[in-house]
Inverse folding.
């Protein structure tokens, strides 16, 4: 019985990952390739305008000089007292990324693993499991993690990448300002204002992966102070493969349309209204899964003075999921037949925020928020949620004071107070010290507490829905997981060529999710909070502007995790199920502007071996090097042609998952693209 | 895999064709702050200061940076060896607005966002051309604001603020800039 138990739920989870399971569920050569890239880059780097050349231009010509701004965000960030990294539009464009998860590989402080053609595991500071749940992700202020498991359906999040202004990635807790789920990090995806996306933009292309894609945007004027844009995007991705080289049926296509209107209604008021609709279809071994959704968001900001403003934001968001679920098999015995799981989630959210100065030294931000979710499931025999329909309310309030101790020293103290229906009141305080050692160096330290509040999977999951056998269910006593994080960081802008940041952390986790069993009947297994542990690590990121045409980037992440079963308690997986992370991660990038309006970009990454979760035994994904390159030609002011190679070093390689013959692997791919703006 | 190889081969040909076709074209890109440094240099040419703006006929023409310095060495390089009439161009860096003495052009860094109102107030009635890249800073009283559009530098000029400080901005500069008028709030 014990043996069956050990393999049963785990095997089940393998299938689960596909269905609800989307939620549950060559050093030498590469170094040589990178060096070749870099050498080629270096040889051509110097043919660029000097300051002297620029001074000979008249003002009109000077305005036509294209500028690169590798370090701009570093300057803006120099005083930020957190481990923040910013992915700019330019970074995204030059990476050749075709989706938001691919763009997130540009943040050194994230772990990004592609599971198959349409699924990714993304996390900061560890815990990157199939049910990874410690990241808060927002698109233009709209929270996009699902209350089903507090993780993100990355296949549902997309945008016309050319209209993304930047992606801010904060590793470490952000609970005091952002609230629950900002345990290990916050990702803020920020699109451009309508004013900055005027005119027509069209891109299209295709290759081995994605097979084909097209996007378009038109931005125009609705009055002297009001601008709008509308956009659409479509792509078609082909199947990936298995280790054997046989095709894995996971092809994916998705269409998306949206709009944004910005109005500077008065000199002091700004209004934004935006919305999106998407519809996608993903092949998987159990059949085709459909995912669609629509949202609309409005935001009003009112400036009271230079140092004071109000903002009021509200959004409405719906997502629809239909997912074929395989039968629940343990050995040759079928416990429940195949079926389809449906989830319809409706979210209403309203947030108010006020920023002002109190006296000469205090800068205060406070706010209140309310969110209502209505989650309606149709359960499959093998998996579902009980109750199937659930309404929940989340109330929150936060207050933060940034106290200026000296011109160069500030202390920030803040907290969020939340009330949710599962665990009641939650308290997430945060204290930060920021010291500008010089105008270009900042040393910061922080201590904070953050919580991962229970999600539906923790409380309401039913793997096997009655009358069928229930193998695993949510825990009715499941409580919040919490972390106390200690952080120290240094950010330096050494000169006009070098910027760098390094941060270290030590995190203590309490009440992390475990799997327990019921005395006597053994089944069903259920979720409890029987794990504790700590993690520590280091994140380094550096940019070097070698010449005005050539920039280099390097990133390194160290992560150690020690998660243990609490003394006297039990966990079925012996604390192995909540982590799946590489100890080391290295990335190097080179961006070069060549004569003839050519751009050559290379990105090399090395990911250490990771021990996977959700297996009957300890399984691993081997360490790997991978290389992406992009060559682009600006045929004219308006037309850019590019060819992008992704994952060039292997025919196919796995990035995630338990090593069995059915684990998908990611293939080498090449695509071509044109982008035209008018 | 056969399909992939075919695609790879196809793109390889395309890539080679692109490279050979486009051996020599125009100039490449410059870094943002090189270009901005040259803009600041041009401001000294296209703005008129009254003689009273200088303490002596041969006093230096001071280009100040307030807060963090995003230019690195580019600003110094752009001004090196230059002078305006009898005034040699010099670059000075200030941490606080109180440190600012004579200053003809002041670049206010993003780091000063929260203090911008006080800075503008402190510079009232001084013939200092204020320059910043802070969002909406021209509405907030800064005379010249840098913005970036499609990787190119653009200017937004608050003519009234410059006029109030006794500065005259040449039409050569105004022609290619967006003119901002103060609509309350300032």
């Amino acid at each position: 019985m014990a043996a069956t138990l050990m393999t049963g739920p785990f095997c089940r989870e393998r299938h689960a990952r596909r269905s609800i399971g989307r939620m549950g569920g060559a050093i030498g050569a590469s170094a040589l390739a990178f060096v070749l890239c870099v050498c080629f880059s270096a040889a051509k780097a110097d043919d660029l305008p000097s300051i002297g050349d620029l001074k000979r231009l008249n003002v009109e010509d000077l305005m036509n000089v294209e500028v690169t701004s590798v370090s701009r965000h570093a300057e803006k960030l120099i005083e930020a007292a957190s481990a923040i990294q910013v992915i700019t539009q330019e970074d995204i464009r030059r990476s050749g990324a075709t989706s938001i998860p691919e763009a997130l590989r540009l943040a050194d402080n994230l772990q990004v693993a592609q599971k198959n053609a349409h699924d990714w595991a993304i996390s900061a500071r560890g815990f990157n499991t199939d049910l990874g749940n410690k990241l808060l992700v927002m698109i233009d202020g709209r929270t996009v993690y699902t209350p089903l498991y507090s993780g993100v359906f990355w296949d549902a999040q997309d945008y016309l990448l050319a209209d993304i202004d930047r992606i801010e990635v904060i590793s470490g807790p952000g609970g005091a300002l952002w609230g629950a789920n900002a345990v290990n990090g916050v990702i803020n995806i920020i699109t451009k204002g309508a004013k900055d996306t005027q005119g027509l933009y069209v891109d299209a292309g295709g290759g081995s992966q994605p097979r084909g894609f097209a996007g378009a945007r038109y931005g125009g004027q609705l009055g002297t102070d009001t601008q709008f844009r509308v956009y659409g995007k479509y792509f078609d991705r082909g199947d990936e493969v298995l280790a054997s080289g046989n095709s894995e049926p996971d092809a994916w296509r998705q269409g998306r349309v949206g709009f944004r209107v910005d109005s500077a209604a008065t000199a002091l008021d700004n209004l934004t209204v935006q919305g999106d609709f998407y519809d996608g279809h993903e092949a998987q071994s159990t059949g085709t899964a459909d995912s669609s959704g629509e949202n609309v968001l409005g935001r009003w900001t009112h400036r009271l003075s230079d140092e004071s403003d109000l903002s009021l934001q509200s959004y409405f968001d719906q997502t629809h999921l239909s997912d074929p679920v395989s039968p629940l098999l343990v050995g040759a015995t079928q416990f429940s037949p195949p079926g389809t799981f449906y989830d319809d989630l409706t979210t209403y959210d309203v947030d108010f925020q006020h920023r002002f100065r109190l006296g000469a030294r205090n800068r205060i931000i406070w706010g209140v928020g309310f969110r209502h979710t209505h989650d309606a499931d149709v359960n499959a025999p093998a998996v579902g949620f009980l109750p199937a329909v659930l309404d929940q309310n989340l109330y929150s309030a936060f207050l933060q004071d940034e106290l200026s101790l000296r011109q160069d020293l500030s202390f920030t103290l803040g907290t969020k107070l939340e009330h949710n229906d599962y665990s009641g009141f939650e308290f997430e305080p945060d204290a930060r010290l920021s010291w500008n050692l010089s105008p270009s160096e900042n040393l910061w330290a922080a201590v904070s507490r953050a919580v991962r509040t229970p999600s539906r999977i923790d409380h309401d999951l039913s793997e096997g829905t009655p009358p069928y056998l229930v193998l695993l269910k949510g825990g009715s006593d499941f409580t919040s997981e919490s972390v106390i994080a200690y952080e120290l960081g240094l950010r330096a802008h050494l000169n006009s060529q070098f910027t760098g940041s390094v941060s270290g952390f030590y995190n203590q986790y309490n009440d992390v999710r475990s799997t327990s069993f019921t005395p006597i009947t053994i089944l069903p297994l259920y979720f409890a909070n029987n794990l504790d542990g700590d993690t520590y690590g280091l994140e380094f990121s550096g940019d070097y502007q070698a010449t005005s045409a050539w920039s280099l980037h390097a990133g390194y992440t160290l992560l150690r995790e020690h998660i243990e079963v609490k003394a006297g308690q039990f966990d079925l997986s012996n604390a192995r199920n909540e982590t799946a992370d590489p100890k080391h991660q290295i990335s190097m990038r080179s961006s070069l502007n060549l004569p003839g309006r050519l751009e050559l970009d290379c990105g090399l990454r090395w990911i250490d071996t990771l021990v996977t979760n959700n297996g009957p035994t300890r399984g691993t994904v081997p360490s790997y090097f991978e290389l992406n390159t992009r060559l682009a030609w600006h045929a004219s002011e308006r037309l850019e042609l590019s060819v992008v190679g992704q994952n060039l070093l292997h025919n196919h390689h796995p990035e995630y998952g338990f090593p069995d013959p059915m684990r998908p692997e990611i293939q080498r791919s090449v695509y071509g693209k044109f982008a035209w703006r008018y | 895999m056969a399909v992939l190889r075919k695609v790879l081969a196809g793109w390889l040909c395309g890539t080679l064709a692109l490279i050979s076709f486009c051996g020599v074209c125009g100039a490449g890109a410059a870094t943002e702050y090189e270009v901005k440094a040259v803009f600041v240099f041009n401001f000294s040419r296209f703005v008129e200061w009254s003689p009273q703006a200088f303490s002596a006929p041969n006093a230096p023409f001071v280009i100040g940076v307030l807060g963090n310095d995003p230019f690195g060495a580019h600003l110094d390089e752009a001004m090196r060896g230059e002078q305006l009439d009898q005034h040699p161009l010099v670059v000075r860096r200030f941490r606080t607005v109180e440190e600012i003495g004579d200053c003809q052009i002041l670049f206010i860094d993003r780091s000063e966002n929260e203090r911008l109102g006080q800075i503008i107030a402190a510079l009232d009635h001084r013939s200092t051309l204020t320059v910043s890249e802070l969002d909406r800073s021209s509405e907030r009283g800064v005379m010249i604001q840098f913005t970036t559009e499609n990787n190119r530098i653009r200017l937004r000029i608050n003519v009234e603020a410059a006029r109030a400080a006794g500065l005259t901005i040449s039409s050569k500069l105004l022609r290619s800039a967006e003119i901002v008028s103060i609509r309350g709030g300032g």
